[in-house]
Amino acid sequence: MTVKRVLVPQRLRRIPAQFSWLDQRLVRDRHIERCDAHACALYLFLVTVADAQGLSYYAEDSLARRLSMSPERLRIARADLVRLGLVAFEHPLYQVLALDAPVAAAARSGVNVNDGQCPRRDTPSWRERLAEWRGRGEPRP
Fold this sequence. Notes:
Layout: H1 25-28, H2 37-49, E1 55-57, H3 60-66, H4 71-83, E2 87-90, E3 93-96, H5 103-108, H6 126-135
Antiparallel strand pairs: 1-3, 2-3
Helix pairs in contact: 2-4
């Protein structure tokens, strides 16, 4: 068993005044596996810039530019995060949602979880796509 120890004590992370974090349940509970790279990039950006309540507001053009996405791709990524219950959106406000809250509760709360601007999209996770690819017996790409 590996014993964990701090490797560089002088560079030990500390919670900065402009606090933000990524919840480990994002990986442990497999939320991240249901997101594509664009949705993950948007989520990382929103978590980074959010205040203590998870709130932020960035113009769509600014977000698209900062994340190197087209506005349409940004809308799809946002819709994916909303559908997965990771983010709530009510133009222009984003809220990164707690991972411990049931997704159905967000939908019942009256929060605008799909503002009509974001088409709903049911995309398979990378694991589902890999399983499908393996099932076809195709040569590895």
